[in-house]
């Protein structure tokens, strides 16, 4: 028996869960958090899922950008006989609030920060630029890790096509901020749009015709307000990347045993490996439970009357068997492509997981299940 | 039959509920009903191609899907329309090819997309509108983005009309908004699983699409519903008589019966809270060994429900 999750919980500072949409990442991240608290760690779970589901499941009214404590009874934490110092906290990423805080920190003065925060183009970056959410999630993680308040930060990532968005997002934003065309526009001495350099004009004039002047003006004003802050952003991006690639940051893949999420998990594993980060484990969530031994053929002497009910029973047994076989086959596809990644299997429960009791049961299961 | 009422069907639902499966099945079902169909994917597309390839095994289906249209079967084509490609292509159409190249090279494509949020979405929809207008297909099926994003995606036209008041992009947005609100042009097919969270999210998405986008909703496909196999067998697990079962067999029946029951609860809730037609797709296995048979079964189910 291999102790993947118990080991990671004790030896990591950050656990990042990634996987395709709909595989139960948020549920898995929350139960890892609970498992960590049971093991005596001070743990915070950061979710990106705006649905109120996690807050509901954790039994609190709402999650905000600031960590809130989750009540676990002493029994859950080992009981009076074995008290632990475990804590569970949770917060939900507020991309804009996090970005605003970064701007305030990096700005030369309050005036510069105010100018940027009021700009339309800036508001678009924080709401619409792809990768910004991922970047701000990592900013949040960096903050939580360096605050010293927690032993472990568990990150529930947004469903994304590319796991690498987390690694490339900071660079992408820096590239946007460094954009040469717009840099020309904010060069010292250049005032309004009409006096920008000839080179910039050749780009701007057609652009204005296509997307409208007001939009271009907003962008120019943003780059002007932002002038001088690029260096701070670049330094910060580098620091954030260091947290992601640190040896005590564990990247975990989560997948259901279906072909498409498994394919996505293989893709994530490859992308993460290309970035020089090793995947530490795969969690197969919601696998069909096995019930063995099941009857293999008729007749079933205990089932009477023989006939319709027996046929129905055999249909059920065969349906279940083929589902289990198909899932096994699908999971084995992962290991044809990705080697040396331990995995654990969490079985589908008869009822959906949507309250704290179910999450606790899942957390205990994570501490118990053997990995292979 | 709703499948023949519009030129475009947009398939929408939360990540992981089986949008691509439903898109591929809808495409194959339309083809079986004698229509000429194009399946469009926004990102990926590998899975859609695999599913169609398994369903039309005699056709010489290419192994990858790109921006060019490919032929999957006699009356079935498929292609991708990715947002960045749509933006570059559109700039070229506007005789701004050199600008497009330069924007790609300097990374300023992001600057534009950030300055005018929704511009990529508009251009994807604009490209699809052009395909609809060309009239080469009886039906275009769009494997849409995940539902949180579906509302943003389809709302992008109205958003841009407000924020960009003039210029070519304003014109494009207005045309797309018209297409989406005209039910003879486009309709939306929703997909969910019979589970608490996907059903909650679907109900929210359905109302948002109707209120904010004004697109016609044809119905909900409830995907991966377990056949009610255990419900008639629960009698066998009670009591201790000769006909009662024990051990793993009994545990399986009890487990399965509870799954079937909780699915029924969600199906009932959906019926009560969302007044739209519902179509039930059985749970099937889509691994390599079962893909072809499963596609066949789903297409049969869909054609049967369409022609009922």
Can you give keywords for this protein?
heterodimer; A: 372 residues; alpha/beta; 53% helix; 12% strand; globular; B: 8-stranded mixed sheet; 8 strands; 16% strand
Q: How would you briefly describe this protein structure?
A:
The complex is a heterodimer of chains A (372) and B (308). Chain A is of the alpha/beta class and 372 residues long. Chain A has helices at residues 4-11, 25-38, 53-58, 95-106, 110-118, 120-128, 132-147, 165-177, 180-185, 198-211, 213-226, 230-245, 259-274, 308-337, 356-368; strands spanning 14-18, 42-47, 68-69, 87-92, 152-156, 249-255, 279-287, 343-347.
Topology of this protein?
The complex is a heterodimer of chains A (372) and B (308).
Chain A: H1 4-11, E1 14-18, H2 25-38, E2 42-47, H3 53-58, E3 68-69, E4 87-92, H4 95-106, H5 110-118, H6 120-128, H7 132-147, E5 152-156, H8 165-177, H9 180-185, H10 198-211, H11 213-226, H12 230-245, E6 249-255, H13 259-274, E7 279-287, H14 308-337, E8 343-347, H15 356-368
Helix pairs in contact in A: 2-15, 4-5, 4-7, 7-8, 7-12, 8-12, 10-11, 13-14
Chain B: E1 8-13, H1 19-32, E2 37-41, H2 46-55, E3 70-73, E4 76-80, H3 83-93, H4 97-106, H5 108-115, H6 119-134, E5 139-146, H7 147-163, H8 168-181, E6 186-192, H9 196-213, E7 216-225, H10 247-273, E8 278-282, H11 291-307
Parallel strand pairs in B: 1-5, 1-6, 2-4, 2-5, 6-7, 7-8
Antiparallel strand pairs in B: 3-4
Describe the structure.
- The complex is a heterodimer of chains A (372) and B (308).
- Chain A is an alpha/beta fold and 372 residues long.
- Chain A is built from 15 helices and eight strands.
- In chain A, helix 4 runs antiparallel to helix 5 (110-118), helix 4 (95-106) crosses helix 7 (132-147) and helix 13 (259-274) runs parallel beside helix 14.
- The termini of chain A are close together.
- The model of chain A is unreliable at 188-195 (pLDDT under 50).
- In chain B, strand 3 (70-73) and strand 4 form a beta hairpin.
- Chain B has helices at 19-32, 46-55, 83-93, 97-106, 108-115, 119-134, 147-163, 168-181, 196-213, 247-273, 291-307, and strands at 8-13, 37-41, 70-73, 76-80, 139-146, 186-192, 216-225, 278-282.
- Chain B has an eight-stranded mixed beta sheet, sandwiched between helices.
- Chain B is globular.
- The longest helix of chain B is centred in the C-terminal third of the chain and has 27 residues, at 247-273.
- The chains are: A alpha/beta (372), B alpha/beta (308).
- Chains A and B meet through helix 6, helix 8, helix 9, helix 10 and helix 11 of A and helix 4, helix 5, helix 8, helix 9 and helix 10 of B.
């Amino acid at each position: 028996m291999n102790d993947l999750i118990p080991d990671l919980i004790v030896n990591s500072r950050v656990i990042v869960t990634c996987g395709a949409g709909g595989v139960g990442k948020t549920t898995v991240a929350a139960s890892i958090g609970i498992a960590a608290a049971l093991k005596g760690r001070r743990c915070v779970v950061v979710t990106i899922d705006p649905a109120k589901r996690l807050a509901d499941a954790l039994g609190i009214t709402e999650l905000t950008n600031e960590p809130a404590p989750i009540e676990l009874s002493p029994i859950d934490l080992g009981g009076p006989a074995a008290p632990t110092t475990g804590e569970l906290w949770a917060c939900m990423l507020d991309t804009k609030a996090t970005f605003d805080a970064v701007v305030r920190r990096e700005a030369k003065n309050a005036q510069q920060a105010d100018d940027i925060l009021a700009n339309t183009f800036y508001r678009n970056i924080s709401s619409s630029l792809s990768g910004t959410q991922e970047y701000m999630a990592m900013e949040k993680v960096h903050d939580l890790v360096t605050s010293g308040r927690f032993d472990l930060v568990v990150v529930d990532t947004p469903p994304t096509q590319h796991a690498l968005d987390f690694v490339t997002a900071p660079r992408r934003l820096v590239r946007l901020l460094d954009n040469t065309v717009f840099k020309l526009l904010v060069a010292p001495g250049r005032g309004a749009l009409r006096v920008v350099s000839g080179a910039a004009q050749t780009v701007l004039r057609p652009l204005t015709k296509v997307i409208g002047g007001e939009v271009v003006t907003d962008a120019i004003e943003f780059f002007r307000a932002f002038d001088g802050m690029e260096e701070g952003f670049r330094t910060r991006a580098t620091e954030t990347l260091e947290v992601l690639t640190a040896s005590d940051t564990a990247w975990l893949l989560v997948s259901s045993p279906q072909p498409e999420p498994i394919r996505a998990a293989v893709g994530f594993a490859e992308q993460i490996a290309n970035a020089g980060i090793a995947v530490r484990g795969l969690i197969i969530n919601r696998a069909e439970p096995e019930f063995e031994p099941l009857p293999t053929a008729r007749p079933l002497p205990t089932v009477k009357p023989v006939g319709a009910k027996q046929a129905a029973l055999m249909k059920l047994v065969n349906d279940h068997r083929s589902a289990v076989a198909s899932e096994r086959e699908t999971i084995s596809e992962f290991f044809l492509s990705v080697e040396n990644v331990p995995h654990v299997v969490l079985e589908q429960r008869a009822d959906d997981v949507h309250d704290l009791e179910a999450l606790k049961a899942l957390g205990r299961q994570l501490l118990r299940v053997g990995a292979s | 039959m709703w499948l023949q009422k519009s030129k475009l069907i947009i398939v929408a639902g939360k990540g992981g509920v089986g949008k691509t499966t439903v898109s591929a099945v809808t495409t194959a079902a339309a083809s079986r009903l004698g229509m000429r169909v194009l399946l469009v994917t926004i990102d990926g597309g590998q899975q859609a191609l695999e599913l169609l390839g398994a369903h039309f095994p005699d056709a010489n289906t290419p192994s990858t899907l790109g921006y060019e249209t490919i032929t999957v079967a006699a009356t079935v084509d498929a292609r991708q329309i990715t947002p960045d490609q749509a933006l570059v292509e559109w700039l070229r159409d506007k005789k701004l090819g050199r600008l497009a190249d330069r924007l790609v090279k300097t990374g300023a494509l992001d600057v534009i997309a950030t300055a005018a949020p929704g511009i990529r979405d508009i251009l994807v929809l604009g490209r699809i509108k052009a395909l609809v207008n060309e009239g080469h297909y009886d039906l275009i099926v769009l494997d849409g983005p995940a539902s949180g994003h579906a509302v943003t995606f389809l709302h992008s036209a109205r958003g841009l009309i407000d924020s960009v008041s003039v210029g070519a992009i304003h014109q494009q947005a207005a045309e797309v908004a018209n297409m989406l609100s005209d039910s003879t042009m486009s309709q939306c097919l929703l997909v969910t699983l019979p589970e608490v969270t996907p059903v909650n999210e679907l109900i929210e998405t359905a109302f948002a699409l109707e209120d904010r986008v004004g697109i016609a909703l044809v119905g909900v496909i409830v995907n991966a519903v377990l056949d009610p196999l255990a419900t008639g067998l629960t009698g066998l697990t009670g009591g201790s008589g000769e006909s009662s079962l024990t051990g793993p067999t009994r545990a399986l029946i009890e487990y399965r019966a509870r799954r079937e029951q909780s699915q029924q609860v969600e199906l009932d809730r959906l019926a009560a809270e969302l007044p739209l037609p519902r179509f039930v797709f059985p749970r099937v296995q889509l691994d390599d060994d079962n893909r072809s048979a499963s596609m066949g079964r789903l297409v049969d189910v869909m054609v049967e429900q369409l022609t009922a």
